[in-house]
Give the backbone structure.
Amino acid sequence: MARNEKKDRFIKLEEWVKKTFPIQHWQMITLLLMCYDVVTIAGSFFAALWIRFDCRFSMIPEEYLNAYYRSILFYALGCVIMYYVMHMYQSIWRYAGYNELYRAITAVILCTVFHVIGIWLVLRSDIYSGRMPISYYLFGTLLQLFFAVLIRFSYRFINLMRSGRVSSRSDRRPVMIFGAGNAARLLMKDLAAAEESDERICCILDDNPNKWGRFIDGIPIEGGRESIMSSVAKHKIEKIYVAIPSATPKQIRDILTICKETGCELLTMPSMYKLYMGEITVNAMKEVAVEDLLGRDTISVNMEEIFRNLQGKVILVTGGGGSIGSELCRQIAAHNPKQLIIFDIYENNAYDIQMELRKDFPDLDMKVIIGSVRDSRKIFDVMRTYRPQLVYHAAAHKHVPLMEDSPCEAIKNNALGTYKTAFAAMVHGCERFVLISTDKAVNPTNIMGASKRLCEMIIQAFDNKVKAGEAEEIPQLFSHIIKTETNREERLRMLRGSKTEFVAVRFGNVLGSNGSVIPLFKKQIAEGGPVTVTHPDIIRYFMTIPEAVSLVLQAGTYAQGGEIFVLDMGEAVKIDTLARNLIKLSGHRPDVDIKIEYTGLRPGEKLYEEKLMSEEGLKTTKNELIHIGCPIPFDINTFLTQLEELKDAADRNKRNIKEMVMEMVPTYQP
């Protein structure tokens, strides 16, 4: 019992000492390091005298010994102060580098200068007018520097030796780096410093022949891209880092095309920005995505123009919770709008983007509204309340097979939803209305594409009426039974003064979007296959979500009204090739580990998509990747009349809805 009481008292005393005199571990190390420095400095200059006189203590003159005894303590304490000023006690020496070595050398040289001056001033009346042997200063300084650096760099040296031994162990995963530039060097440094790493670098490859046969940190550079397969086999490589951030997308694609044939895990560099910021680390590397294999330069937009177009504006995004809509909201929020209104029918998506933007842009004035673009009363209320200056209309049904089975819903949501939203925007003084369209609207073979072509025609009709000063002739379509005439005169007055510009933006399939084939393929691969492709020859144009949104925002700055903006999406990609690449990137072999099955074209699906109709010409813009399709003329008054009839048919879910659409869209061939 008494022993336990003593133990408790000791613990309480220890806790009291820690609270009263809190000393960090590094501070204790600093005190010990100061003591070490005092001892080694004194020892260094004594050893200098001893060496000067043939390593025989008896031969050292008494005058020199007295001078040493009288000055060395003051000098050692002065050195400690100088070391402190030069941050030699505050550095984390396990990460010591050139900067720490430079400061150590500078501190020792400055101390030596003061040492010489101090001895001369204090001892100038003594031996030889205060002069000590030159070798005393020379050997003493060298020894002082040696001991100062030894203790400080020993821990780092041991770590380097240990990491070198660890990285060369045969039980570590053999990896290869493609690229022998600065990015690769920084990556190697990070791999060596990662204590938990289970990887060892076996070789480096680079396309520059001048580097072949040479070494980086003892790692051989064995050749260029033609050596990838042989080096993988030779070293049994399991992972490849592609560290060439300055390479063009085509060069990256060519290298990755070879690498994926090895079956190794692939990681690549995100961008040159990481290199400029010194952020080349293992964690900064990203898995190779399918878009890395497309080999197309990403779209380049004029961010200054976009900033001027969005800054200080009230902006509405319909379908703001979807894949395109949410990215629109992110990029708009980053350009300082006055207010951002997010409108979506699906509350879960709307909630997700709301939480994300609140976190990333805490000062953003944001409103999230749940509602449908099919509800004319709701969309009118939103426009009247917030008076948006810019509207980005991304709300739409996009799944081709589902719309084939529910064609009336495609008309209600896509065509009529666009009509009602555009009409409400026009009535309430919106400056610009941007429709998100698709390449499936070109010569459509499915009702989804046809409905989007109707959307484009609605935009063109509205723009034509506004420019002709005939906006009041555009009929309002109601989603409710009673066609109320409330505030009709005020509405007509606002329509007569409307200056709204209407444009459409057309692009291809978006990688990673809700309707993209990529998530389906990834899910099928994770389940062990089979991966289903509709046809071995089916092709599509692809772009990333940020590219699509950049195009939409850029189109808003070019808009004059009535245009259909088209992105040059480069070469079309075979879906079969895309599926095989995904299987290889997942470390499997197509048709061996993961089977590919061809299921046949789905209802309304084409072998290929077109960017423009044959009747449309192309005009260039300031951005060489963005073109303008000339509007196809059609009888606008007849079209608007047919649209009212189409609405009534869709509301009644008539079975002949596709035939009615064929009359309105001559290029629609189911």
About this structure: The first strand starts at residue 173 and ends at 178. The radius of gyration is 37 Å.
